[in-house]
Design brief:
Strands 1-2-3-4-5 form a five-stranded mixed beta sheet, with helices on both faces. Strand 2 and strand 3 form a beta hairpin. The radius of gyration is 16 Å and the shape is globular. Helices cover about 35% and strands about 25% of the residues. The termini are far apart. The longest helix is centred in the middle third of the chain and has 16 residues. The protein is built from five helices and five strands, in the order E-H-H-E-E-E-H-E-H-H. It is an alpha+beta fold.
């Protein structure tokens, strides 16, 4: 079962984020707090959204997707940027990841968005194969750049 996250899901969302960071071999980078997630996802004017995947038998959360809107100047419309998608190891193969992606695709189509995009680590072959099985294609010829930390502060004049 896939459902929209509610404010009481914040602790489990944070736990899933930390599990994802462990899986991606970067636990030290997951520094978000419950307060930050609560404010961002459920504040006065949220711009980030989350879905929860629950085990059909127990109702326990087994995965999540965090997403926000992006915009295509070429298409003249919004799209969905999938920031994180994660399913706990014991629940993989049960269709939860696919259900999360299909729900996001449904939202995109219903709202008239042009596309969905996300990044995946080059070494994550199981996820890459999964995404390709749904018809997703890699954006060959594009590289992701990030400005953060001291470089961001310097560029921002601080």
């Amino acid at each position: 079962m896939i459902r929209t996250a509610v404010v009481t899901d914040v602790p489990v969302i944070l736990a899933l984020i930390r599990e994802l960071a462990e899986y991606e071999k970067a636990p030290h980078e997951a520094v978000a707090t419950e307060e930050q997630l609560r404010d961002t996802l459920f504040g006065a004017d949220p711009a980030v959204f989350a879905l929860i995947a629950e085990d059909d038998a127990t109702g326990e959360p087994v995965g999540f997707a965090v997403w926000f809107l992006n915009f295509s100047t070429w298409r003249g419309t919004h799209g969905i940027y999938l920031e994180d998608l994660y399913v706990r190891p014991q629940a993989r193969g049960g269709g939860h990841g696919k259900a999360l992606l299909l729900e996001l695709a449904r939202i995109a189509v219903e709202r008239g968005y042009a596309r969905m995009e996300w990044s995946v680590l080059d070494w994550n072959a199981p996820s890459i194969n999964f995404y390709k099985s749904l018809g997703a294609v890699p954006m060959d010829g594009w590289s992701v750049y990030r400005l953060a930390g001291e470089a961001l502060a310097a560029a921002g004049g601080r």
